[in-house]
Amino acid sequence: MSENLQCKLRRLARLSSYVLVSAVFPGSLALANPPETGLWFDDSGRGAVQITPCGERLCGHIFWLEKETNAEGQPLRDKYNPEANMRDRMICGIQVLGNLAPLSDGSWGDGWVYDPKVGKSYNVEIKLAQPDTLTVYGYAGVKLFGKSLTWKRAPNDLPKCKTAQSASGF
Questions:
Q1: What is the DSSP string of the chain?
Q2: Using one digit for the tens of pLDDT, what is the confidence trace for 18-34?
Q3: Domains of the chain
Q4: What are the phi and psi torsion angles at 30 (to 5°)?
Q5: For residues 158 and 48, is the Cβ–Cβ distance under 8 A?
Q6: pTM for this structure?
Q7: 5: how many CB neighbours lie within 10 A of its CB?
Q8: Given a cut of 50, is residue 15 above it in pLDDT?
C-alpha cells in the first residue's frame, strides 16, 4: 500500500473517531485532542501559535514571538486591526485561528485566520501534511484564489510570551 494511501486511511480513521466521540458525547472534542493541536511555528518561524480544542472546533492563539517588543521596547500591539478599539491589545495571546470544524477529508475548515501584520482576516483550512508539518490554506471567499503556508511543529517547552495579557483568556 502506498504511503499516500496509508496517510489518507489514517486521516479517515482519525476523523471517524472524532465524529463518533462527538456524536456519543456532544461537546467532548477536548477529550480527543486531534494531532493538529499543539504548538506550531508559523511560516516565518518568528511566531508560534497554540492550537487547542474550543468546544467541538479548533482555535489558536499566539503563544510565542521571537520579538515581543518594538524598537522602543514596548509590547507589540494589534495596531493594524480594522476595529479601532482593538488596536491597543497586545499581539501575544490574541486569537488568530477560530471556528475550525472537522471536514470529511481529515482537514479542518470553515474557520478563520487573522493576520495581525496586516490586520486582516481570511477563511482558512488546515491539514496535517506530516506529523510535524501543518498546511495552512488561507483564502478570501473563493478557495481557488488562496495561499498555502507551511507551519512546523514547535517544541512543547517553547516559552510562553511574557507580554501576554491575562485578560485574553490565554
A1: --HHHHHHHHHHHHHHHHHHHHHHSTT-GGGS--TT-EEEE-TTSSEEEEEEEETTEEEEEEEEES--B-TTSPBPB-TT-SSGGGTTSBSTT-EEEEEEEE-TTS-EEEEEEEETTTTEEEEEEEEEEETTEEEEEEESS-GGGEEEEEEEEPPTTPPPPSS--GGGT-
A2: 443 444 444 444 446 89
A3: 3-156 (2.40.128.520)
A4: -60, -25
A5: yes
A6: 0.79
A7: 9
A8: no
